[in-house]
Amino acid sequence: MEIEQVFTRRNSIGQNYAQPIIYEWEDEISKEMMIPLLSYPSFYKAVNRFKIHSSLIGPSNNTFRFVINGKDYDEPMNNKHVIPCVIDFFERDNQLNDFYRKHSRNKIVLVSSPFDYQYLKEKKCPIEIGLFAYSLSDRYAITHSDFEKKYDLVLTGRQDPLLYSFFKEYVKKHPDVTYVKRGQELENDTSKTKGYFLNGKDYLGTVESREDFMKIQAQGRVSLYGVQGYLDGFTKGFYHMTPHFLELIACGCHIIAHYPAGAEGVDAQYYEFGSFSPSIESYEEFESALDNALNTEVDLKKYSSYLKKHYTSTRVKDLQMLLSGL
């Protein structure tokens, strides 16, 4: 089975700097496979609204598309010619049959997390399941030997609650440390304000684009990273890696991480978290790790070599191999 086109949703109202990550993946797939990027046909909205079931409505060419989460559904996309890739999968036992129904005509369903791949295999998913793991666009390849590091810590994206509690304690005990984070207050910024501040005082500006995001992240020597799955809510127990881990490496940052070990740490094993940071479980471990990171240069050769395994172009080659058997 060969993919002939990629469906994409762009220029929608209310998008933020994170959504273009998907567009970057789509661009790389289109480039590597030399296939077109196409917008979803406008009449699909009516098809979904009236829940029209017909095998004649969906695409007749083999079409790749990203699906935002396991609940997301487009009626015309339940089609033998469509290869969906689910980005965020949080479907529990009582939700799985509905998920299977939504993809009953797809020859294969891809997931972005090794954890989800194993989870669905263990649940004996009746649909063919494949792994198209999170990646980083090739545009972020490390091409130079140094970064302009202005600050000790730069925190972007969602913060792990445990690591953030250690961070707050650390900066109170080490007032000379420079840190950049969203919002002025030291308490975690739950309102998701766009403004970033240096040590809660000097306003540095807003992050409005992917370029802004990567630029400010690359100015930090160290950053914090935690997998999903620890907090109560719909993500509880789904220990997903997010692409931010790869972004931190591309930005030349030391990483202080928190992740599960053992059987639940499937993503952590796949992405070799342990070669960058042990899972930090206590303040004493955090303080020692941060002290060491602030006094050690990043091994950019190691970082560059690692990222070659996780660029989107590499994933595309893996995908082509996977689909060749269908």
Describe this structure in words.
The protein contains eleven helices and twelve strands. Helices cover 32% and strands 17% of the residues. The mean pLDDT is 92. The chain is of the alpha/beta class and 326 residues long. Helix 1 crosses helix 11. The strands form two sheets. Strands 2-1-3-4-5-6 form a six-stranded parallel sheet. The radius of gyration is 21 Å and the shape is elongated.
Defining key terms:
326 residues; alpha/beta; six-stranded parallel sheet; six-stranded mixed sheet; 12 strands
SSE run: EHEHEEHEHEEHEEEHEHEHHHH
Q: Ends: how far apart?
A: 5 Å
**Radius of gyration, whole Å:** 21 Å
Please, how many helices? 11
How would you classify the helix and strand content by structural class? alpha/beta
* Spatial shape: elongated
Instruction: Give start-end ranges of low-pLDDT stretches.
Output: none
Percent range for helical residues?
25-40%
The overall pLDDT, averaged over residues, is 92
Largest sheet: 6 strands, parallel
Strand portion = 15-25%
Overall number of strands? 12
Question: What topology, given as strand order, has the largest sheet?
Answer: 2-1-3-4-5-6
Brief characterization of the structure:
The chain is an alpha/beta fold.
